[in-house]
Protein 1
Amino acid sequence: MATQLAPGLARKVKKVLETRADTPETIACLKGLSEFYGENTPAARRGLRSSIERRGLDINREFLEASGQAQEALAVVDAQLEGLLSGCRRIANVLDKSRERTGNLLDETARFNNNLAKIEERKKMLETFLVDYQLTDEEIAALRTDDQITEKFFSALARVQEIHGNCRQLLRTHHQRAGLELMDVMASYQENAHERLARWVQGECKTLAEEDGPDVPDLLTRAMTALKSRPVLHRYCIEEVSRTRHNALFRRFISALTKGGPGGVPRPIEVHAPDPRRYAGDMLGWLHQAAAGEKELVAALLATEGDEGDEEKNGDKEKDGDKEKNGGEEHKEGAGVDEEEAADPEAVLDRILEGVCRPFKVRLEQALNASPTALVAYQLANLLDFYRETLGAIVGKDASLVATVEECRASAARTFEDQISRRAAKLREKPTRPPDTLAPPPFVAETISLVRELLQARSDMVSGGDPDATYDAVGAVLNPAVEACERGADAIAELLREESGSAGPDLATNAAGTVPPAYTARWAKEAYLLNCLNAMAAALGDFPGASAARDSLNSRVASLADTIADDEAGRILRSSGVAEVRELIALYQGQRTERGAMSRDPALELGVVGSALDKLVDEVSASPEPVPAFDEVLNPRTRVDLRDTYVGKIIEAYTLVYMAVLDPNNGYRDAKSAIRHGPDALGVLLN
């Protein structure tokens, strides 16, 4: 049995055994031990404790020696710090004494700095005041110098207006007296500047009067705009412009009429006086060009195309309000521009162009008094109507020049109407004998030629014109010719009735003393009218503006053709008895009768009806010309329509009677055996 260790020794052994030799602490201790532990002998082991204690004691002595040196160094540093603190206390004492001595100087310096800041602020305010409320010497010189108006003048004038507006703001403060005094000074500058500007404008207007198509300088336009704030001066300048341009335009127009251009190019307008249309066209063209140029000049002078004067107008209106607030009535001329007093560009342009109205009117009336032809008078009326609209768009509908052109147009229209009236009277006084072939007489060809020339003149115009006026003009020419044709047709009928020619030597017979064969046709009167109306309608076919007149003529042609066809068809229907039968059948069909009542009527017996139908077929088949040729009608299309209408009316009447007989409700028995031919057979004969 093993011997047990004492508890204390056992714990130490256990602790030694549990101690790890590879820990950093253990290794460090062993390294320190190896420095003074020599050989591992029993004696050394027994003295290990004392060796360790001696080693610790040596270390402590070394530490004490080293800390003594450190304490000495710290004592030196402490002495130095004490000296530094002593120096700082001396410096602080010196600074306190210096502060006490310089405190007054700093206070005075701060006061001076504050005063300097206030002075700088006042300097800026003064500079701003001078900029906002005073003119510079250069600006004053630009307003007062009597030399040529330049850009500097308008800049200075705008500066005056700006200062005037600034003074209005000054009146809203407690500096009202200063504001009023400054406004008086600026108003004086402005008044003198506007008077000088007005004199300069008058001089420039005289220069403009010497030029044909002057370009308005920009400075002159600005001057007129600036003068709008002085209505009296502005109106005076406008009157000067109107007067000078009025006289200049009159001289230029007379020169263009009598002298022409420089060196005779272009030639004088009056050279073309024998040609009224060319004469009037040249004058109107010159007036149109002059009106456009004068309008541009007036627009530039009055600044009607821009807003250059808006700021001045607004400024003047504000100025008036401020003067009313302050009870001031001075500078009444400088009040804002009233719209009623503003210059009307159209009125100014009207006064300028008024001078050429009388020379133009006199010369055009001379051309009309020379009894031009109806065509020339109509062309002049159209030309004047076109330029009336054109000039009205430039100078205004109520301008005197437009009124003059309208008077001349009305005079040309009256001349045209007089010529047409004389022509119609001549046709009435001297009736024309229809040609032997019933062709249109010469006056119809003359009328057609005149109508085509009138329509061509209207279509050649740039403006479409009034369609009603064109229709009236065409009607004024055609109607007398149509009436003359009707009288000629009546003369044919009268000649055929009397057969002796007692209606007059002009209408009785032809050159051989016999009645022309064409006159003997039953439809001679209507054929003559058809030929005349067809010729007139055909002449209008190329002109859309004459559609109403053409439709009216074609309507009469259709009516006459229907009359001829109806009369001829009625003649053969009456001769065969079919016409009477058809009327009775239509009478029965229009009433409600009992069944078979038609067949019991003696006038509508089957034999009577069949005999009438057979007779009609026999007459058509026996005739060498079943359908009249209507050769007296010269228009092929109308002849074809006449024949078709004639055939249609006969077949329609035959078919009506034939179907009534075959209708069982009418009571006819064995109707087909009593009627030899049907409508188809008659159609074959006629076609």
Protein 2
Amino acid sequence: STTTLARVTQTGEVLRGVVRVLKLSGKLREAYAAREDADKTNERDASELSKVAKLLGEIKLALNGGDFAGIDVIDEQMSFIRECAVGCAREANEALSRGMELKSQSEVGAALQVHYNLNELGKVVDARVAAYAAAAVDAFKEALDVESLGREASGADARGIGPGGHKSNYRASSSAPPSGAEHVWIDTLWRRVDAAMQDAHENAMSVWHLQRVLAKKRDPLTQALFLEEVVGKAASSQALCDRFWAMLAKGVSEHLSRTHAAAGFVSGVLLKGFPRLVGALEECVRACARDADGAKGAPGCTRKDDSTRTQVVRAAEPIAVAYFARSLSRLTEAASNCFAGGRIIDEVSTNRLLSRIRNEIDAVAEYDHLLGTACTNASTALKTLAERAKRAVLRSADAANLTEDATPSQQANAQIAEQLSRVHGLLSRVLPSFAPTPRRALEAGLEHVASSVLSATNPLFEAVGDWCDARFAQMHAASSDENTGGAAIVAVTSTLAHIAESHAALTTSGTIRGPLFSARLALGERILTSFLNHASLVREFAQGGKMRMAKECGDVETAVKSSLRLGGAETEAFKAAKAFKSLVLLPTESIDGSPLLREVPDRVLLHHLYSRAPQDLSTPAKRASLNAAQYASWLTKKASDAEIWRGVKGTLDVYAETHADAKTNNVLILMRRIGERM
């Protein structure tokens, strides 16, 4: 029957299994006996142990392949098989430990072959890596142990007995050094940390050596690569070292967290010397990378992409958070103290702030990832300084006084602008030496400082700009025989000279491209733009009027450059002023095609061309029922190019409806061409 056939088949399989186990057991006895004989004659061969392990592995597979419970002949062999398995595993572990200690690739390879034959290679390797990582973590834990630290610092042993057998004054329960022994304890702690990192280096290199052998060793029969048998074919060839670093980082982080939470002497030293702690961690990783790189073709001990270093250094995050929190507190306190006296800031207080910023940055300058955080803290302190400065700026009436020498309010504002500009200039010099990330962090704070400099100069410079606007407006109210408003220009140039003399701190300080120079440049550009807007609206020139206009244009430009110390400035506004001076004297028939058309702003050019167009052509100001001064104010403060062209085009369209020469007049044609490109 089917049932009988199934039982016969099952019995046959069991019998074949029994025969195989008995046959393998016989071979095992022969191999074990030969090994014992070799032990007696001191001629032990590693291959004999491997052969024994191979037989044990095959027996284990055979036993797992069937149900042999209750079979006497198998039970009789099990005691011997178990004894051989235990002895073989013990000898293989001893051989592996000996090979790892001697860093002998051949001995380690032979021991790994035994474990492979015993079908326990993965388990043994995992245990070894975990043991090396645990040893490294324990060394670090011991280095931070305050009781052990105290004994070592005082030279006492575990019983409190010092050198020479004398009783040490160290108390085992003490968590802080005795008075006067602080420096000894600190030095001892850092020596212990360095020693712990050396232990970590040695353990990491042991894992690397194990990984290196696994990456080379193959089973002679199956050609299976041992490393792939342990970590899998899809895993990285550095997987074992990666595992070690991950366990080390986790353990170190946990111990640092507990140490910091305890808030004792060790925590304080690590917090104060945090950069040194980071340096010790980084040096451990660098040393491992350097030592492993000497073996060509072997898998590395650390990652080339710097991820290993980042992972290990991140273990110090519990200390890093507290360190940079204190750093930020020191920086913001120094920034706030710059205005400790109220609205006054002086060179001494800004020097203290600069010194503090330098100290905080220098402490971590060797580590780019820490430098970025330090620069972010410095940037926050600069923002605090900038906000305090903006609140301290005085905006009273005397802060905008132009008729007298500098008032107390103006002097206070100038002091703020000068000192903040100095801070900006000194810190800007070191920016090029930073990596991109810390540089961007510090630049953000300097932008706030630059904004505060502009705020401090704003009351005076806005008043100067408004005053100049009002003087330029007088050009249009001048008599017909002096319609360029010569008196107004003289008033502007003389006032600028007075400002330069009365407010020398604002007009002479600051480096090119610094915020104070930028504030003066903005004022200079505003004055020149306002002048050009007004000058372009002058339509009727008296005898010699064009020559006077060109001269006054040059006078304003010279006064702006000399009074505001803008020598060398070649912005669009300055180029436009030079070009307009030449344009005024240029014959009408030479304007089209002149290179000056590229230098003079389109809006200025359009309005100036009204002075060369037919008199019947109405101006945009007249069509809008505005006088020239009002229209110029609108141009300066609100008008967009599109709005200006819309107004000009309206006058041209109206003229074209009633005048036949609108399509042939060169000036009108040029005006349309300029307007259409705006």
